[in-house]
Amino acid sequence: MSDITNAYIPPAALTGSMRDFRVPGGIDLLGRTEGFFKWQNLRRQNGLWPFSRATEDGPSTVCSAQDDSGNKMRGVNFASQDYLSLSAHSGIKATAKEVIERCGVHSAGSPALVGNTSYSVKLERKIAEFLRMEEVVLYPTGWAAGFGVIKGLVRSADHVVMDMLSHSCLQEGASAATNNIYQFRHLDNDYCRNILTKIRAKDKENGILVVTEGLFSMDSDTPDLVGLQQLCHEFNATLVVDVAHDLGCLGEDGRGHIGMQNMLGKIDIVMGSFSKTFASNGGFVACKSRAVKEYLRFYSAPATFSNALSPVQAATVLKAFEIVESYEGRAQRDALMANIVSLRHHLRGAGLDYYGDPSAIVCVKMGSEGLARLVSRRLPELGLVANLVEFPAVPKGAARIRMQVMANHSEQNIVKAVEILKTARQQAEVEFEDHKRPAQFEARAVA
Fold first, then answer.
1. Which among 227, 117, 105, 104 has a CA at the least distance from the CA of 163?
2. Which of 167, 346, 380, 435 could, after both became Cys, cross-link 73 (CB 3.0–4.6 A)?
3. Phi and psi angles of residue 281, each rounded to the nearest 5 degrees, phi first
4. What is the helix (H) or strand (E) element at residue 316, kind and residue range?
5. DSSP 5
6. Low-confidence spans in the chain with pLDDT less than 70
7. In terms of residue numbers, what domain contains 19?
């Protein structure tokens, strides 16, 4: 075991969260950032800051990376969002090279001002066809799409009703659009109904946007989309479903939970990201009318005032859709699901539990933030690249190691990852007990 995993750790490095520094006080806007940096750097100095890492050779199943202090690591990679392993696919790379030679690498304009390319126009039509919707608006990122669709449609007198675990982009979009925000218990349609009933009892004039996700990325579970859409029809509300984590990689035909629940073409608004399955940055909003598309184009700021997707990005996503719809795409989804089932099986065999239903997201339960941090700092040395998730991204006391599965992971990759995680957990539990008795541990460390 290295010195860093055998040294005394100040208790402050094992406690606290980023929420503590979200609303800093004081007149000095720049100086008041110091509190967060001091806490962050204490964690960094003790090997407990696993964020902002950089890969050196792309998101392959085994990769080299370095942390934000330049410390290098190499290991089996369960930290990247490349579910169908398309980022290094030969067809994807060939498409990117061909389009770079033809068009260069930059769109050089917003979609409103000649930033579109023939590839982005084709991509809009492909996504609309894939989802059985009428129209699609492209965005520079998935985050921009989630923020932009809410801010673009909702005005200050309107209401946003959202699953309490909705993604940051959706939460931020709602906060930017209106003060009338209501959160319902995760996946609880009855709770949502109660909120809608109370809103409509007082306000029959303004709009209501109901927001959920096809697959929640921290809990790997999915809502009853049929029931939510029926609720929206009943209360004259509009439903938005974020399909970032399931589109392309789940379901027999790759259409995710919307397809599996027979809701293709039936959801009011579908938004998603290309960065999980489709080998590119970017996002989209799919809708049922040209009027909605044109309104979002010019009143959804991330679409109007951001540069359009580059030609190489749009062409890459088009090629990814082609693969997703092919026999090869189905084979990759089958391989992905086999890996998901195998990982969950081996985790249970190792005495490790996880959240949710089978998906490319397998979040392994840790519990205490302090224990999870001690587990996380052991992983690079043992040869595993995986992400720590802690409060406030998840509830306090429900920290987890998020394992993200790829179709090209081998059984050996999976077995090794579980062995490492089990070892790290066992070692961290012993150390965490010591840290509950800091005076005794400090004396032992000095000795």
1. 227
2. 380
3. -70, 165
4. helix 311-324
5. G
6. 1-6, 438-447
7. 7-80+327-446
